[in-house]
UniProtKB/TrEMBL annotation, chains A, B:
GO molecular function, one term: transcription cis-regulatory region binding
Domain HTH lacI-type: 14-68
SUPFAM superfamilies for the chain: lambda repressor-like DNA-binding domains, Periplasmic binding protein-like I
Alphabetized PANTHER family for the sequence: HTH-TYPE TRANSCRIPTIONAL REGULATOR GNTR, LACI-RELATED TRANSCRIPTIONAL REPRESSOR
Protein name, as recorded: LacI family transcriptional regulator
Length: 341, 341
DNA sequence: GCTGATTATGGTAGCGCTAGCATCTGTTTG
DNA sequence: CAAACAGATGCTAGCGCTACCATAATCAGC
């Protein structure tokens, strides 16, 4: 009678079948009691709840995913978690997707194309319900796998030129342009550009920087410095030292993010270079500390959290209705003019 | 003959069966070619490889997990990703577990006990092969589920008093004590303590601080300030202002992390308070920017990356051999005495 | 009291993959 | 030359869950 079938392959863990037996119902009723409690009568629901608690039952997600063909997960690929920018984006995503019951598969370490491909393939094995990516996929294989998978996808941070994909972000070149214009308007003429890793977005900001200089007739003056290293305050110090040694005449530096800018600021403090009088410093992203540094940092405020929120929302819409047209959502940016420039 | 059975529940995605048919072999051979290539002859291996490429086959991880009872994933729960400390820990974990083929399920937002429980339960549904946790689980239900799951677990950051669990980290109270001793030895007497959220680890550092003051006979003098808000440079500015307003006589402040310390530094710069002459400032963690700030930040260097690495290694050992005894691994810390104190 | 709709529960058959064994071929050994 | 063995491949039966359909029980309406 008590057909406690335990095959050789059984894992020994409590299954839905065990709970069903304990509660004197069928497995499918337990399944329903857990997923759609309203479809099960109250007495059964309670009995099942007790059985679950007594046995310490934890549903097996792999089995659920396999049977239902829905993973209830969304994969998010960001370049790096040491960059606060992406942590803020993630927070926005989590705040939208968490309450909707989605689990996030967070992948990082994407400044390397091979690693990016590896990660994307790995996450596709989970058959996520949706995909949130940062920037275009670099490797053709990754792009093919992406297209072939049919998983709804939203790209974040940048606005895609390709209007067949959905993207949420702001115009990187426009932001670079705006900051450079600001520096020009404040009377600076020898404006340097500083970056860490030259990813897509950084390159676009640089395009904006160059365009602004060109238009102002200073296109011939061009002091650009970058490093393959990851961005950090320390790197900002180093690059500033190097920049000033090579181009002593510069009167402003547009740093591609706030970490570098803070490093530039520290370097100037250490050397007694007055900011912004002798050297104006501009950052990018408005990471929070810029508002309290001395002098306070002029920077570009980017809608990171909001990008995460809107990207998640657009993705949800596309999961519910895969036929939706692609969309490009520009969330803009805002110049924060403070003391350093 | 071509029994292309496509039941009503089929997802339409390419399965291992499709690949097998295309390559003219059985499904199990494809499975082997993908997992243990050496066990399949070269010609077949190549034919299968081509079929995989042609069809764009992506294995279904849920099915694999279900059939093999191994998820090849490790769940990592950290309090927050906006705290660089945990990002460094994650990097160490990834560097060990990634090459070994494990996927990481990263959970954050754990400063809330209810959320922590929710996340832990959600990750247990994945039946991870191992679990890396930060701090003790607060809720009894979470602890029960953890114990019942039988999943190998390593706790990170702090050293557990409970020697039945494996933990990797350093002594938080000892670190708090050491820094306070340093400040005392430099002649400071009115030493304040500043923290953001009072999590377990922060409280233990404070214990060390109090003990050092007590021993030095300054136990009666106690200026402590904290805030329920998340730690940030801005919060450091605020708390410093508040602290100085309430306790104008303090001559040193021990900040529970470097963000707060930088905020304190900025506040002093803004108000023209000489550091360290009028107010010495000490941080915690040695996040990188402390080495270049002006003045450079005295702080406690914590082996974050290394904690991640060793925790992952201990976990691997326990996954391979669940019978291993619990272990407590103290990785120590190092006082970084620089200019600010 | 009968019909048709509605609600609550259960049985069956997979989802896509792999463990465990069986089978088949070719090679080695006494 | 038979027996023993190793290596390569295949068959079958699940892993634990849920979609789909069937059935039983209840109820409104005529």
């Amino acid at each position: 009678m008590n057909k406690r079938r335990t095959g050789s392959r059984s894992t020994g863990r409590t299954t839905i079948e065990d709970v069903a037996r304990h509660a004197g119902v069928s497995a499918i009723t337990v399944s329903r009691a857990l997923r759609t409690p309203d479809s099960v009568s109250k007495p059964l629901r309670e009995r099942i709840g007790q059985a679950v608690a007594t046995l310490g039952y934890v549903p097996n997600r792999a089995a659920r995913t396999l049977a239902s063909a829905r993973s209830n997960s969304v994969a998010v690929l960001v370049p790096s978690l040491s960059n606060q920018v992406f942590v803020d984006v993630l927070a926005g995503i989590r705040d939208v997707l968490g309450p909707r019951g989605y689990q996030l598969l967070i992948g990082n370490n994407l400044y390397d194309a091979a690693e990016e491909e590896r990660l994307l393939m790995a996450y596709l094995e989970h058959h996520p319900d949706g995909l949130l990516l940062t920037g275009l996929q670099q490797s053709p294989r990754a792009r093919a796998a992406l297209a072939g998978s049919g998983v709804p996808t939203v790209h974040m941070m940048d606005l895609m030129a390709d209007h067949s994909v959905t993207s949420v972000g702001f115009s990187q070149p426009a932001a670079g342009y705006a900051m450079t214009r600001h520096l020009l308007e404040r009377g600076h003429r020898r404006i340097a550009f500083m970056a860490a890793q030259l990813d897509e977005r950084t390159l676009k900001r640089r395009d904006g920087y160059r365009q602004a200089l060109d238009e102002a007739g200073h296109g011939d003056y061009c002091a650009e410095i970058s490093s393959p290293a990851a961005s950090s305050v320390g790197l900002g110090v180093e690059l500033t030292a190097q920049l000033l040694a090579e181009h002593p005449a510069i009167d402003a530096v547009f740093c591609c993010n706030d970490d570098l800018a803070l490093g530039a600021l520290f370097h100037c403090q250490r050397r007694g270079i007055p900011v912004p009088q002798h050297l104006a410093i501009a950052g990018f992203n408005d990471l929070g500390f810029g508002a309290c540094s001395v002098p306070a940092l002029t920077t570009v405020a980017t809608p990171r959290y909001h990008i995460g929120v809107r990207a998640a929302e657009l993705l949800l819409a596309r999961i519910d209705n895969p036929a939706l047209d692609a969309e490009t959502l520009d969330l803009g940016f805002e110049l924060q003019t403070r003391e350093s420039a």
